[in-house]
Design a protein that fits this description.
The chain has 259 residues and is α/β, with parallel strands linked by helices. It is 24% helix and 23% strand. The protein has a single domain (70-255), classed as Glucose Oxidase, domain 1 (3-Layer(bba) Sandwich), CATH 3.50.30. This is Cyclase.
Length: 259
């Protein structure tokens, strides 16, 4: 007679092995730009500072000190970031697996986007008809404008990326809300916000009215989306920063090349 504990353990181990084997069959894509001095930042946020405070020559080991805003590089916005009556919904309260979900990439990087240009529901619906794919309930929507690939830099012009971007109109923000997605992300610094010289075109309806107030998280500065299959497994988890308004992320998209 089989020992029930051994039998259950064998079954559990096999499930883990199968999951690991399947994950290794997918193509991983790193979705975070490198955090370093001089990268773009939201204009009112402090600079990212990285100091080599402990070095091998003096201390026998190596360690750096970081000073940065929570919203630096690829990051997630928690509801508390913009919703005053949701200060209980800080980043440390987000479930660790909240950003592990299927995702759909809407790739519009072939367009010649200018600051202030707007993506609309008709653009999304046409894309879905063309490719036979659509984001569904409890999934993540990712929009690739091609903006980060074209304009992310670390020189004296880095802030141009932070002050200019295409965005989404309120009707599109509502469309994603009605799809009941977990999160919406983009390769721009403020997701749905269209910016011209640092001035938003509109009122950031995802941040203030439709997404964050309803628990739909916002992902910003998502890199390398041009390398991701249209449907992928998105894997990220925020740092549990106490009372945090957001957190840097290093997401991975696990892709199937026939998706």
């Amino acid at each position: 007679m089989k020992d029930p504990v051994t039998s259950e353990s064998d079954h559990s181990f096999e499930a883990v092995r199968n999951a690991s084997r399947h994950l290794r069959s997918l193509r991983p894509v790193d979705l975070a730009p490198t955090l370093g001095r001089g990268i773009p930042r939201w204009p009112s946020h402090p600079h990212l500072i990285i100091d080599q405070t402990i070095v091998h020559e003096n201390d026998g080991y190596y360690c750096q000190n970081l000073s940065m805003a929570e919203h630096i590089g690829c990051h997630v916005d928690a509801p508390a970031h913009t919703v005053a009556d949701q200060m209980h919904a800080t980043v440390d309260k987000i479930a660790a697996d909240r950003l592990i979900a299927e995702a759909v990439v809407y790739d519009f990087s072939d367009r010649d986007w200018k600051p202030g240009d707007i993506l609309t529901p008709s653009d999304i619906e046409a894309y879905e008809r063309k490719h036979g794919i659509a984001v569904n309930d409890d999934e993540i929507a990712l929009v690739n404008f091609g903006w980060l690939k074209r304009h992310w830099r670390r020189d004296t012009q880095a802030q141009w990326y932070a002050r200019n971007s295409p965005g989404m109109n309120e009707e599109l923000v509502l469309l994603f809300k009605e799809r009941n997605v977990r999160a919406v992300g983009a390769d721009t610094i403020a997701c749905e916000a269209a910016l011209v010289d640092g001035v938003p075109r509109g009122t950031l309806p995802g941040h203030f009215r439709h997404w964050l107030p309803n628990g739909i998280l916002i992902l910003e500065c998502v890199a390398n989306l041009e390398l991701v299959s249209r449907r992928c497994l998105f894997v990220a988890t925020p740092l549990p920063i106490e009372r945090g308004s957001g957190s840097p992320l290093r997401p991975i998209a696990y892709c199937c090349d026939d998706c």
